[in-house]
Amino acid sequence: xxxxxxxxxxxxxxxxxxxxxxxxxxxxxxxxxxxxxxxxxxxxxxxxxxxxxxxxxxxxxxxxxxxxxxxxxxxxxxxxxxxxxxxxxxxxxxxxxxxxxxxxxxxxxxxxxxxxxxxxxxxxxxxxxxxxxxxxxxxxxxxxxxxxxxxxxxxxxxxxxxxxxxxxxxxxxxxxxxxxxxxxxxxxxxxxxxxxxxxxxxxxxxxxxxxxxxxxxxxxxxxxxxxxxxxxxxxxxxxxxxxxxxxxxxxxxxxxxxxxxxxxxxxxxxxxxxxxxxxxxxxxxxxxxxxxxxxxxxxxxxxxxxxxxxxxxxxxxxxxxxxxxxxxxxx
Length: 331
Ligand SMILES: Cc1cc2nc3c(=O)[nH]c(=O)nc-3n(C[C@H](O)[C@H](O)[C@H](O)COP(=O)(O)O)c2cc1C
What we know:
The chain has 331 residues and is an alpha+beta fold. It has two domains: 15-120, NADH Oxidase (3-Layer(aba) Sandwich); 142-313, NADH Oxidase. It is built from eight helices and nine strands. The strands form two sheets. It has a five-stranded mixed sheet with strand order 3-4-2-1-9, with helices on one face. Strand 3 and strand 4 form a beta hairpin. The two termini are 30 Å apart. Flavin mononucleotide (FMN) binds at residues 29-33, 64, 67-68, 71, 127-128, 130, 205, 223-224, 281-284, 320.
């Protein structure tokens, strides 16, 4: 999907279109389903802002918040494509306004491609997969396609190929996850953003989406503990380990890189979901800068690690709730 340069004339955006565009953007994944985004709508542009009240306590720099908002930005761009326009995007358009992340306009008319259509169809069933995968490889050619998606968004999807590299990663993560599960700030974040079965909240991680005891099986990276021993988690089931472990990297490690990582993430996840391939995300250890640089060095990665993914085939969907567009728009 190409992004156009700015021209003087932009197509007006109707209120109905703005609602549709924002609803689709808001289906993006976000850390702990915090949905840390706000939008403003003018006659010819939608602006995406970070919502600092929804930033995690462990995320002081806002890295995970901006990756989440980047994922929403990709959804906004894809939604613009579905209306038959090229999105015109200004990233971080006013350096003095830190919360303003992007301004998106409708550019030249251009028909939706077959892949974009498939990604749009995947939006409702794309989900973060914490349960078992089905046995069997990823569809032929998909991994190369996902790697191409990452590059198109200014990122790299590095596959952890050898058993040795996988072992090194698992070792680093095992120690880091145990320490972080015990960290009081991380635990307070999980308490604020995880929900028990009766909760009607339209944000946070619902009990149906996580197990009571986080999966630590062989072949799977350690999962974040959303339950904290409360017995909320309802997710169960046996299955195969994921087929592919991958790290999403960016060249730099600043605000624009985090937004690009988020755009790459949502593009990869939607493309994969269009083939019924889903990802579990294991980013808790990446919250510590020391662990991120350790992973980069020990695995000799050509960039800064932003997300850890495990990809596999599944036939289930676990869509989580979102707040409606009208609750996300500022006057
Ligand atoms: C930056 C970021 C970090 C995330 N980290 C984790 C994680 O460590 N463990 C996990 O299970 N899910 C993680 N997720 C997935 C979110 O919990 C998930 O997107 C959110 O709950 C919404 O659910 P959905 O993706 O199924 O729509 C992360 C998502 C993002 C964008």
